[in-house]
Design a protein that fits this description.
Length: about 160
Protein backbone atom coordinates (compact mmCIF):
# COMPACT_ATOMS: atom_id res chain seq x y z
CA UNK A 1 0.00 0.00 0.00
CA UNK A 2 1.02 3.52 -0.55
CA UNK A 3 1.59 6.15 2.11
CA UNK A 4 -1.55 8.04 1.00
CA UNK A 5 -3.68 4.91 1.60
CA UNK A 6 -2.35 4.60 5.17
CA UNK A 7 -3.09 8.26 5.84
CA UNK A 8 -6.63 7.89 4.45
CA UNK A 9 -7.26 4.77 6.55
CA UNK A 10 -5.91 6.48 9.67
CA UNK A 11 -8.22 9.45 9.08
CA UNK A 12 -11.26 7.15 8.65
CA UNK A 13 -10.40 5.23 11.81
CA UNK A 14 -9.91 8.48 13.76
CA UNK A 15 -13.36 9.72 12.67
CA UNK A 16 -14.92 6.35 13.52
CA UNK A 17 -13.27 6.40 16.98
CA UNK A 18 -14.56 9.95 17.53
CA UNK A 19 -18.13 8.91 16.65
CA UNK A 20 -18.01 5.98 19.11
CA UNK A 21 -16.52 8.16 21.84
CA UNK A 22 -19.43 10.59 21.40
CA UNK A 23 -22.17 7.97 21.11
CA UNK A 24 -20.95 5.41 23.66
CA UNK A 25 -18.06 6.77 25.76
CA UNK A 26 -15.97 4.40 27.86
CA UNK A 27 -16.93 4.62 31.58
CA UNK A 28 -14.37 6.64 33.47
CA UNK A 29 -13.80 3.90 36.04
CA UNK A 30 -13.64 0.98 33.57
CA UNK A 31 -9.87 0.55 33.76
CA UNK A 32 -9.91 0.53 37.58
CA UNK A 33 -12.79 -1.97 37.65
CA UNK A 34 -11.03 -4.28 35.20
CA UNK A 35 -7.79 -4.16 37.20
CA UNK A 36 -9.75 -4.99 40.37
CA UNK A 37 -11.64 -7.82 38.65
CA UNK A 38 -8.42 -9.40 37.41
CA UNK A 39 -6.77 -8.97 40.82
CA UNK A 40 -9.54 -10.82 42.68
CA UNK A 41 -10.01 -13.55 40.08
CA UNK A 42 -9.45 -16.85 41.85
CA UNK A 43 -8.63 -15.03 45.10
CA UNK A 44 -10.75 -17.51 47.06
CA UNK A 45 -8.55 -20.42 46.03
CA UNK A 46 -5.38 -18.49 46.79
CA UNK A 47 -6.72 -17.58 50.24
CA UNK A 48 -7.67 -21.20 50.91
CA UNK A 49 -4.23 -22.40 49.89
CA UNK A 50 -2.52 -19.75 52.02
CA UNK A 51 -4.70 -20.75 54.97
CA UNK A 52 -3.66 -24.38 54.50
CA UNK A 53 0.02 -23.47 54.47
CA UNK A 54 -0.33 -21.22 57.51
CA UNK A 55 -2.30 -23.77 59.53
CA UNK A 56 0.01 -26.68 58.73
CA UNK A 57 3.07 -24.73 59.89
CA UNK A 58 1.49 -23.33 63.04
CA UNK A 59 -0.37 -26.44 64.23
CA UNK A 60 2.81 -28.26 65.22
CA UNK A 61 4.17 -25.20 67.00
CA UNK A 62 1.14 -24.56 69.17
CA UNK A 63 0.72 -27.95 70.85
CA UNK A 64 1.59 -31.63 70.87
CA UNK A 65 -1.75 -32.61 69.32
CA UNK A 66 -2.17 -32.95 65.57
CA UNK A 67 -5.02 -30.58 64.70
CA UNK A 68 -5.77 -28.01 62.04
CA UNK A 69 -8.60 -25.61 61.35
CA UNK A 70 -9.36 -24.76 57.72
CA UNK A 71 -11.79 -22.25 56.27
CA UNK A 72 -13.06 -22.14 52.69
CA UNK A 73 -15.35 -19.53 51.20
CA UNK A 74 -16.56 -18.47 47.77
CA UNK A 75 -18.17 -15.22 48.90
CA UNK A 76 -21.65 -16.63 49.50
CA UNK A 77 -20.92 -19.94 51.25
CA UNK A 78 -18.36 -20.56 53.98
CA UNK A 79 -17.18 -23.92 55.31
CA UNK A 80 -15.10 -24.31 58.46
CA UNK A 81 -13.30 -27.62 59.08
CA UNK A 82 -11.54 -28.82 62.23
CA UNK A 83 -9.28 -31.82 61.58
CA UNK A 84 -8.08 -33.96 64.49
CA UNK A 85 -5.73 -36.96 64.37
CA UNK A 86 -7.18 -40.07 66.04
CA UNK A 87 -5.26 -43.40 66.12
CA UNK A 88 -3.77 -43.16 62.63
CA UNK A 89 -6.96 -41.76 61.13
CA UNK A 90 -8.57 -38.32 61.16
CA UNK A 91 -11.84 -36.92 62.43
CA UNK A 92 -13.22 -33.94 60.53
CA UNK A 93 -15.81 -31.73 62.20
CA UNK A 94 -17.35 -29.17 59.89
CA UNK A 95 -19.76 -26.27 59.80
CA UNK A 96 -21.39 -24.71 56.74
CA UNK A 97 -23.33 -21.43 56.75
CA UNK A 98 -25.71 -22.45 53.95
CA UNK A 99 -28.42 -25.08 53.65
CA UNK A 100 -26.37 -28.11 52.58
CA UNK A 101 -28.40 -30.80 50.84
CA UNK A 102 -25.43 -33.10 50.19
CA UNK A 103 -21.96 -33.22 51.71
CA UNK A 104 -19.25 -35.55 50.39
CA UNK A 105 -15.62 -35.94 51.33
CA UNK A 106 -13.78 -37.16 48.23
CA UNK A 107 -10.46 -38.92 48.71
CA UNK A 108 -9.08 -40.53 45.57
CA UNK A 109 -11.77 -42.85 44.23
CA UNK A 110 -13.68 -43.08 47.52
CA UNK A 111 -16.38 -40.79 48.88
CA UNK A 112 -17.79 -40.46 52.37
CA UNK A 113 -21.20 -38.81 52.76
CA UNK A 114 -22.40 -36.76 55.71
CA UNK A 115 -25.59 -34.93 56.60
CA UNK A 116 -25.66 -31.43 58.07
CA UNK A 117 -27.81 -30.57 61.06
CA UNK A 118 -30.18 -27.62 60.92
CA UNK A 119 -27.30 -25.50 62.26
CA UNK A 120 -24.92 -26.62 59.50
CA UNK A 121 -22.83 -28.99 61.56
CA UNK A 122 -21.46 -32.24 60.06
CA UNK A 123 -18.63 -34.69 60.70
CA UNK A 124 -16.58 -37.50 59.19
CA UNK A 125 -15.05 -40.22 61.39
CA UNK A 126 -12.11 -42.52 60.61
CA UNK A 127 -10.85 -40.64 57.56
CA UNK A 128 -7.55 -42.10 56.32
CA UNK A 129 -4.70 -39.60 56.07
CA UNK A 130 -4.14 -38.14 52.63
CA UNK A 131 -5.32 -35.55 50.14
CA UNK A 132 -9.06 -34.92 49.96
CA UNK A 133 -11.66 -32.41 48.80
CA UNK A 134 -15.06 -31.44 50.18
CA UNK A 135 -18.03 -31.20 47.80
CA UNK A 136 -21.39 -29.78 48.80
CA UNK A 137 -24.71 -29.09 47.14
CA UNK A 138 -26.14 -25.97 48.78
CA UNK A 139 -29.54 -24.38 48.46
CA UNK A 140 -29.37 -20.64 47.92
CA UNK A 141 -31.89 -18.21 49.37
CA UNK A 142 -33.44 -17.96 45.90
CA UNK A 143 -34.12 -21.70 46.02
CA UNK A 144 -31.53 -22.53 43.35
CA UNK A 145 -29.11 -25.40 43.94
CA UNK A 146 -25.41 -24.76 43.59
CA UNK A 147 -22.27 -26.90 43.82
CA UNK A 148 -19.56 -25.81 46.24
CA UNK A 149 -16.14 -27.46 46.09
CA UNK A 150 -13.04 -26.80 48.15
CA UNK A 151 -9.52 -27.00 46.79
CA UNK A 152 -7.68 -30.18 47.71
CA UNK A 153 -6.27 -30.29 51.22
CA UNK A 154 -4.30 -32.83 53.20
CA UNK A 155 -5.59 -34.44 56.39
Amino acid sequence: METEDFAADAAIFARLRGVWEDVDPMPTDLVDRMVAAVAVADLTREYALLTLVEESQLAAVRSDTDTATLQFSDGSTTVLLHVTATDGHRRIDGWVDAAALAIRLVQGDSEIAATATEHGRFSFDDVPPGVCRLRLVVKETSGDLRDFQTPQFEV
